[in-house]
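Researcher: Please translate sequence to structure tokens.
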Amino acid sequence: MSARGLLGSDEALAVRYDLALVDLDGVAYRGHDPIDGAAEGLAGARAAGMRLVFVTNNASREPEAVAEQLTGLDIPTRAAEVMTAAQAAAELLATRVPAGEPVLVVGGAGLHTAVAAKGYRIVGSADDAPVAVVQGYAADVGWQQLAEAAYAVQRGAWHVASNLDLSLPTARGFAPGNGALVGAVRAATGVEPASAGKPSPTMYRLAVDRAGAARPLVVGDRLDTDLAGARAGDIPGLHVLTGVSTARDAVLADAGERPHYLAADLRGLLVPHPEPLPEDGWWVCRGAAARVVDGALELGGRPEDAVDLVRAACAATWDAVDRGAGPDPATVPDLPR
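Model: Translation complete:
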């Protein structure tokens, strides 16, 4: 099967890979609420010898606060096991800006701490002549801060975004994310920012280097950030169906956003993963089957596991797309989560 397709594993992913790069919102928790199977799956992965680093595009909080929240959800975590977009943004900043230079920070405590830790002088106004603007999400970011960022960028400051997520999952639904706030500065200046967060693989590479891992696995719920970053970084990616991107989204995913594995939730780390294979014109995954005929996706078989039907549908659709004969998206149903 194409390298852009699903992979199979005869052993549990927690055994096959030595490090899981785990997203937070929509994967380990949703807002302040736990996600079914998250604590069980991560505890089992640790017991199997897999190490964990929680890699989040959220730049508003410090690693200690993230670790405390996870621990309170029965996922014991140390601050050293958290890699935030704020830390990645500070690392990206250091590739061009010497320590000691003035930097305008727009964001929360986590971003301020990460930038200060790299030795920069944090300023609050464009009139302080910052050489760079570093922007991350915080719930209290408002017009005045966005305006200062725009003034500084117009005057030549380098614009670095912690991430470009347009939406942010919360307990009440999806709220505007950092990408939406960055978009306001981009609209005012016409300048495209550099981004440290996913889908850039920067954070993944930093986390892998920190852990000294040889066989990392990305685990996420968003195709356009988590899994796109996995593809960009040439790291296998597990898409769990507990967050933003649905099973139908996975079937219709662009080649650069396709996951390598699929699971209902984080307990998918603890089991083998069957690989869909072609058989008599169908793509078959255990009891599930799918094919594309005359531009339409057809589903069949007697799947015992709903995820197997998603796997088969992905394999059939991706194969057809790669051959230039992909299905009409209208023929792809809302598959089970």
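Researcher: Any highlights?
Model: The first strand starts at residue 19 and ends at 22.
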